[in-house]
Design brief:
178 residues; alpha/beta; Rossmann fold; six-stranded mixed β-sheet; 22% strand
């Protein structure tokens, strides 16, 4: 059965190591017959959550930016891939802002499958676990969310370092297995 997959890429570098991992996941999923869309947060205008609380009653944010469109996509997706470069042992600011802004409709994001893709200069996979825990904390707030897999692109710093890294194959295989 074909699934609707949404990849949320928070990499600021188009075509960088991290972006290439997302593309491999996407290639695998499309090859398996799934409908896949990748959204690059760097190309969107998303403001910080202001903590005003209006969304708790209105189920919509007062801010007029690109987040409303992304929330529609999140609610419609069967599978969500959250992808971040690891900065200082945690997720990047673009991904944190994105996660915070889901508050207006997070209760509608029920029974979704989630994959995580990470890339870091750190060679030690254990050094990336804080980032995974941040994602797991987000999933703890979503009813019926299921973590399906994590791709660890470790030891990559300069553009192109990911080529030949085992994480590329892992990302494609994970995408096929959705």
């Amino acid at each position: 059965m074909s699934k609707k997959i949404l990849i949320i890429s928070s990499s600021p570098r188009k075509g960088g190591n991290f972006d290439l991992l997302c593309d491999e996941f996407m290639k695998g999923s499309r090859g398996a017959g799934h409908e896949v869309e990748k959204v690059r947060l760097a190309e969107k205008r998303i403001g910080y959550c202001r903590g005003c609380g209006v969304c708790h009653d209105a189920h919509a944010c007062l801010q007029k930016d690109d987040m409303a469109e992304l929330l529609d996509k999140l609610v419609a997706a069967d599978v969500i891939v959250l992808a971040t470069p690891v900065y200082f042992y945690t997720l990047c600011g673009q991904m944190k802002t994105f996660n915070d802004r889901t508050v207006s409709r997070y209760q509608e994001m029920r029974a979704k499958e989630f994959y995580f893709i990470l890339a870091a200069a750190e060679d030690n996979r254990a050094g990336m676990e804080r980032t995974v825990e941040c994602f797991r904390g987000f999933l703890d707030c979503l009813e019926g969310a299921v973590e399906k897999g994590v791709v660890y692109g470790s030891g990559v710093w300069k553009m192109g370092d990911i080529k030949g890294n085992p994480a590329m194959k892992q990302a494609r295989i994970m995408g096929i297995g959705v």
